[in-house]
UniProtKB/TrEMBL annotation:
<protein>
    <submittedName>
        <fullName>Lipopolysaccharide/colanic/teichoic acid biosynthesis glycosyltransferase</fullName>
    </submittedName>
</protein>
<keyword id="KW-0472">Membrane</keyword>
<dbReference type="GO" id="GO:0016780">
    <property type="term" value="F:phosphotransferase activity, for other substituted phosphate groups"/>
</dbReference>
<feature type="transmembrane region" description="Helical">
    <location>
        <begin position="78"/>
        <end position="98"/>
    </location>
</feature>
<dbReference type="Pfam" id="PF02397">
    <property type="entry name" value="Bac_transf"/>
</dbReference>
<keyword id="KW-0812">Transmembrane</keyword>
<keyword id="KW-0808">Transferase</keyword>
<keyword id="KW-1133">Transmembrane helix</keyword>
<feature type="region of interest" description="Disordered">
    <location>
        <begin position="428"/>
        <end position="472"/>
    </location>
</feature>
<comment type="similarity">
    <text>Belongs to the bacterial sugar transferase family.</text>
</comment>
<feature type="domain" description="Bacterial sugar transferase">
    <location>
        <begin position="239"/>
        <end position="421"/>
    </location>
</feature>
<feature type="transmembrane region" description="Helical">
    <location>
        <begin position="241"/>
        <end position="265"/>
    </location>
</feature>
<dbReference type="InterPro" id="IPR003362">
    <property type="entry name" value="Bact_transf"/>
</dbReference>
<feature type="transmembrane region" description="Helical">
    <location>
        <begin position="7"/>
        <end position="29"/>
    </location>
</feature>
<feature type="compositionally biased region" description="Acidic residues">
    <location>
        <begin position="436"/>
        <end position="447"/>
    </location>
</feature>
<feature type="transmembrane region" description="Helical">
    <location>
        <begin position="104"/>
        <end position="123"/>
    </location>
</feature>
<feature type="transmembrane region" description="Helical">
    <location>
        <begin position="41"/>
        <end position="66"/>
    </location>
</feature>
C-alpha cells in the first residue's frame, strides 16, 4: 500500500507539473519562442520532457530520503520533491544544454509548488489509513498499533495458528512480529503472501513509522540502536559542525534576547539569574548545564524532583519562560563548549540517570550521542513526571537515535518553533482530552473504511484475535 500511495503521488505531481508548464508558458510568452510553430512545439516539448523527468527524480529522491513514517501526503514531502526536482532540472540543463527561459523556469516552478501544496491540502482533508493484518500475540503492541491514527487492523493472527488461514483482503498488507516463532502454517501463509507480490512488513517497522517510537519490548540487547548509529558515524561530526555554525551565525538574534530575559529574571525573581546543574552527557560524561532560573531558590532543597505542568516550585515568570522555551537559551553556550547539540536526547540529572539505569533496560544507549537543547521526545511527548512516562519518552529517544538524519533534525526544529509560537512548552498532558482525540480519530477511520468489505465468515475461519482492554 505504501508503494501504491507514493507512486500515485509521483504520478499526480507529474500531471500537475504539466498543468504548471502550460500555465507558465501562457504567462511568460506572448509569442512562440521559435521562428515557426513546429520549431516552437519541439523546443517546448523537449523542455517539458526535462521537467517531467525532473519531477519523477524528485519524487524518487524524496522516497529515498524520507523512508520512515506513514506515506501521508505531507507538505514537507511536497516541498522536498520540488526542491529535488529543481536540482535535477538544473543538472539536466547544464549537461544537455537545451533552450530554456529563466522567467519560464521561475513561473513553472512557483505554479507547480502551489499546485503540489494544494493537492496535499485536499488529500489531507480526507481520512485515510493503512489496512493491515497483524501476525502477533503481543496484546500491548497490537493495542498501540490499533490506536495509531492512520492504521486499520483488519485481523490478528496468532503466530502459533495451525490449519488453513484465509488470504488477506486485496488492499491489505501483512505485518509480522519477528520477535516470536511462527508455526509451519503461518510461515507458509507469510511466504505465499510475499511470493504473490503482497507487501509484508515487520511489526516493529510499522509501529515506528506510525508512532515515532521504538517498541522497547522488541529490542533484544540494544544492538539495533548501536548498529544503526554505526552507519551514521560520518554524519555526527558534520552535525556538530553545523551546530556550531548555526549558533555563531545567529548570535545577533539570540544574544539580545538572552540579555533582556536575564534582566527580567534579575528584576522580578532576583538572583541568581542563571541556574547551573550537572547533567549526564555523551558517553556518560558529566556536563554543567546553563538555564535561566525558573524555580524558587530552594526548589531542590529536599533533592531533585521531576518538574510537572503546574509545579508550585516554578515562579510566575518562570512559567512563562518555560512555556516558550526561553529558559533554555543559555544552553547555546553549552553548544559552543561542545557539551550539547541543538537537537538530541535531553540530558538528565545524575540522580535520575542512576535510577533509570537500574529500572529501564538499554537506558545507557541514549548517551551514545551528544544530548540536545531540544529533541524528538520533547516535541512529541513533552515533560515527564513519572517512571512510566520516562519509559515512553525513552522510546522516542531511541527512535531519534535509530533514524537520526538532517531531515529529522529539521522536523524537530520546526516542531520546536511551533511549541514556542503556541506557548505550549509546559502544557500538562490531559489524558481525558487525549482519549477524546483517539475516539474522534477512530470515528474518522471508521468512515474511511466503511466502503471496504470487512473479513466475513464466508472468507474462511477467522483466527483468534487478541484485542487489548481499553484503558479506563
Amino acid at each position: 500500500m505504501r508503494q501504491r500511495i507514493l507512486v500515485g503521488l509521483a504520478m499526480a505531481d507529474a500531471v500537475l507539473l504539466l498543468v504548471a508548464f502550460v500555465l507558465g508558458t501562457a504567462l511568460v510568452f506572448d509569442r512562440l519562442p521559435a521562428a515557426t510553430p513546429g520549431e516552437a512545439v519541439q523546443v517546448l516539448a523537449r523542455l517539458c520532457a526535462i521537467w517531467v523527468l525532473s519531477s519523477f527524480i524528485g519524487s524518487f529522491m524524496t522516497g529515498l530520503v524520507v523512508s520512515q513514517g506513514p506515506p501521508r501526503p505531507t507538505y514537507g514531502r511536497g516541498v522536498l520533491t520540488t526542491i529535488f526536482a529543481f536540482f535535477a532540472l538544473a543538472g539536466q540543463i547544464i549537461v544537455l544544454r537545451p533552450y530554456f527561459s529563466r522567467p519560464l523556469v521561475l513561473a513553472v516552478g512557483v505554479i507547480w509548488l502551489l499546485l503540489v501544496l494544494l493537492l496535499r491540502y485536499v488529500l489531507r482533508r480526507r481520512p485515510w489509513s493503512e489496512r493491515i493484518v497483524v501476525i502477533s500475540k503481543s496484546d500491548e503492541l497490537i493495542g498501540e498499533v490499533r490506536r495509531a491514527r492512520h492504521i486499520t487492523v483488519l485481523d490478528v493472527i496468532d503466530p502459533n495458528t495451525s490449519g488453513p488461514i484465509p488470504p488477506p483482503p486485496p488492499d491489505a498488507s501483512i505485518v509480522v512480529d519477528l520477535s516470536v516463532p511462527w508455526s509451519r502454517d503461518v510461515t507458509r501463509y507469510v511466504s505465499a503472501t510475499s511470493v504473490a507480490g503482497r507487501e509484508v512488513r515487520s511489526l516493529g517497522e510499522m509501529y515506528e513509522a506510525h508512532t515515532g517510537r521504538v517498541p522497547l519490548d522488541h529490542l533484544s540487547e540494544g544492538w539495533e540502536i548501536e548498529n544503526s548509529l554505526t552507519r551514521k558515524l560520518p554524519f555526527l561530526p558534520f552535525k556538530h559542525a553545523i551546530d556550531l555554525v548555526l549558533v555563531v551565525l545567529t548570535v545577533p538574534l539570540w544574544l539580545p534576547i538572552v540579555a533582556v530575559v536575564a534582566l527580567l529574571v534579575r528584576v522580578i525573581d532576583g538572583s541568581p539569574v542563571i541556574f547551573k546543574q550537572v547533567r549526564v552527557g555523551r558517553r556518560g560524561e558529566l556536563v554543567e548545564l546553563f538555564k535561566f532560573r525558573t524555580m524558587l531558590v530552594d526548589a531542590e532543597a529536599e533533592g531533585a524532583k521531576q518538574a510537572v505542568g503546574h509545579d508550585p516550585r516554578i515562579t510566575r515568570l518562570g512559567r512563562i519562560l518555560r512555556s516558550i522555551r526561553l529558559d533554555e537559551l543559555p544552553q547555546l553556550f553549552n553548544v559552543l563548549r561542545g557539551d550539547l547539540s541543538i537537537v538530541g536526547p535531553r540530558p538528565e540529572q545524575v540522580a535520575f540517570v542512576q535510577t533509570y539505569r537500574e529500572a529501564i533496560p538499554f537506558y545507557e544507549q541514549r548517551h551514545l550521542v551528544r544530548p540536545g537543547i531540544t529533541g524528538w521526545a520533547q516535541v512529541c511527548h513533552g515533560y515527564v513526571a513519572s517512571e512510566e512516562e520516562t519509559i515512553k519518552k525513552l522510546s522516542y529517544d531511541f527512535y531519534y537515535l535509530k533514524h537520526m538524519s538532517p531531515l529529522l533534525d529539521l522536523e524537530v526544529l520546526a516542531r520546536s518553533v511551533k511549541t514556542i509560537l503556541t506557548a505550549s512548552g509546559t502544557t500538562p498532558r490531559d489524558l481525558a482530552q487525549e482519549q477524546a482525540e483517539i475516539d474522534e480519530e477512530a470515528v474518522d477511520l471508521a468512515e474511511d473504511t466503511a466502503t471496504h468489505r470487512p473479513i466475513s465468515p464466508a472468507d474462511g475461519p477467522r483466527k483468534q484475535e487478541h484485542r487489548p482492554k481499553r484503558a479506563s
